[in-house]
Write a structure and sequence with these properties.
The chain starts with a helix and ends with a strand. The strands form ten sheets. The chain has a 24-stranded antiparallel barrel. Strands 3-2-1-5-4 form a five-stranded mixed sheet, with no helix packed on it. It has a four-stranded antiparallel sheet with strand order 14-13-16-17, with no helix packed on it. With 864 residues, it is mostly beta strands. Among the domains are: 52 residues, no CATH class; 99 residues, Roll (Ubiquitin-like (UB roll)); 55 residues, Outer membrane usher protein (Immunoglobulin-like, Sandwich); 82 residues, Immunoglobulin-like (Sandwich), CATH 2.60.40. It comes from Cedecea colo. It is a multi-pass membrane protein. Pfam families: PapC_C, PapC_N, Usher.
Length: 864
Amino acid sequence: MIKKSLTHQALTLAPLAAWVMATLWPGVSLAESYFNPAFLSEDAASVADLSRFEKSSGQAPGKYRVDIWRNDEFIAIEDLSFVEADKARSGADVKSGGLVPCLDVGWLKRLGLNMLAYPELAKYKAGECVPVTKEVPGVEMTFDFASLRLDISLPQASMLNGSRGYIPPDQWDEGIPAALVNYSFTGNRSSNNDSYYLSLQSGLNYGPWRLRNSGAWSYTRSDSYNTNTWKNISTYAQRAIIPLKGELVMGDSNTGTDVFDSLGFRGARLYSSDSMYPDSLQGYAPTVRGIARTSAKVIIRQNGFVIYQSYVSPGAFAISDLNPTSSSGDLEVTLEEKDGSQQKYTVPYSTVPLLQREGRLKYDLVAGDLRSGNGQQDTLFFTQGTLIAGLPQGYTVYGGTQLAESYTAAAIGLGKNLGEWGAISMDVTHARSKLADDSEHQGQSLRFLYAKSLSSYGTNFQLLGYRYSTSGFYTLDEVAYKNIEGYEYELEDDGTHHKVRKPQSYHNLRYSKRGRLQVNLSQSLGDYGSLYVSGSQQTYWGTDRHNTSYQAGYASGWKGISYSVSASWSKSVGLANNNRIVAFNLSVPFSTLLGHGYSRDKAIDHAYTTFAASKNADGQSTVQTGIGGTLLEGRNLNYSVTQGRSSSSGYSGSASANWQATYGTLGLGYNYDRNQREFNWQASGGVVGHADGITFSQPLGDTNVLIKAPGASGISVENQTGVKTDWRGYAVMPYATVYRYNRIALDTNSMDNHTDIENNVSNVAPTQGALVRAAFNARIGVRAIINVKSGDRAVPFGSAVREEGSGATSMVGDAGQIYLSGLPLEGKLLIQWGDGEGSRCFAPYSLPAESLKQAVVVANAICS
């Protein structure tokens, strides 16, 4: 009650005190009030120089590591210099701490500002602070000191086209020199048969170059035969050609699929890399044009989502850097004028793979030997070139050629965005061919592509292709066959543990391709699930037989229960089997069966029951039930147990578990039916050699990130299941996105009491195939509260503190208390409370060894 009364009196007297101060000292304004050390201590000498806090919002100028955002788009986390607002000739609010960023012309270019539109910027030298809000009208900068976030708003009219989503090439990271190995080992053992398989992908990175090799070893042993083989699958070198926005590959690779069918080759390929372009310039999207009466805001929506928002100056404008969220769906444009009025209109939009944006060129050049795993084909040298160009008015023109000793082909095509009628492209290919029997042929092939979305009805309809070929048309892949007709065989188990040759594919060049139709249709039914139908049919000259494939399915869910019904049918020329099958699948969470709410902490709520049934054209049916789920804290252990019955093999069952661990993945399994019982196992992972040693990891991707936090062991990486730093503080995050910022964050909740990370977030933008390093400054040591005295009194409040050995910093609190983390057991503190030698002292300290077992220790020290 007394405390409440005193507080009320203080609040009542506060306005009166302010009036008295203003009357007696009129020269002192409330905006620049004097900070009297006596408020902290009766002895002013016991308080450090706190003049930098005299201003109500004052923070010390200098370098701060901040999150930089441009137009609500993340740019980077970097150290930026900040200066006082008045020195930068720019205002700053209280939230900013009285600071504004010092941005030079280099940073303005990096932000995508059109420098040519502002010639006054040429007078500023590199490293010199530019008063951005003065020189570039319409720019707004907001700095939140508490969260260390800098927001920069640039008008659309001030930016270079295509800058949205763009990371300049000088920010791309080629990575560090490294040796990489990816391995996958599987084994299988049954009563009279053992088999083992090892797949290896190895590589070397040096600068922009990537050298890769892939090979496999297999071993099989049974009562009647043994096999032991090693097969080299591919070897190639690759690097980015940044000025051409392309990739160069030399060795074993595959051609593109835009104009001609994809082919394996051994040679060289130079092609456009879509990943090097901004997200907003990849693929196809129409140019949105309009006329603004005033300085207006443009909002573009697709399928109900805002996909673009920016500002335009009065007059005509064109927006050509859209990044649609889907391949179809009309664009709804809203123009909000300064006077409050609005313009609204719709830009119809659909796309097919060959459409490109206006002004975009996409190229692909190949020279090398045809390479196939099919033993029925010859190796022949060929060259191929394709070019796709985006034109005004929604047109795209494309073409290409394939040349070989026995083959010549040329293609040309045109695509068009038809607005509300969808998108279409058509091309024709003319080819001259010489087959294995030395017969010569020539013919044409016409291809038609169409796509249309009825997004308001949830329908996506794509006639992905109808191709009609004359009887004399052959592809380069067909010309490579050694014989006019033949089978490709593979060794398979005949069910009695003997290997027999079984046909896997068939070709007959007398049956040249005639027509191919492929249709995809998907329909969303809202709360009632979704439906899809897809199919393709290939007909041939010289026979009424054809290759056919159809799929259809329905999927839905209810209260966590998911179920689906699917059907498939296929038939191939030359192969006897008809593959027809109907299947039903059901999955029910245990939380639903038990009738209680979901809890992420209970293992039972991460488990589910399954039921599956299928029947094929031969009348063979299978029914299977089981349970599955995930275990462990990180949910990185998956398990499954099933029991079923088949009309062909009787009762069967299986049990399996897969652990996604820090240094790889491990799996075990057991299967049985009436004919045999077998065990299987698998192990996969990666090994990375780099300048700091060797790091083991989960299976590597094409592009990876090496996390370096020396001494910080056992720290988890956010959003990466099972990935933790090893005993030295290193880890590998696989599958990084190329030419884009990848956010690498260490989970601070997984750190022990003796580990601190100054900044647990890093951003890297790797090039294709790179191993980039994300370095973190870890402080390993004791967390301590040290009470420091100088003589018989505490060191001044607010003094700056630095431990000389580790570099740990802090500030003196009340009664000389100092909190520091990452301290060694013995060290020396430098304490500074003013300028000059007489305003500092040194405080040696020594902590007991058991401090390493405590969360926070308390100690005393004398400063002299």
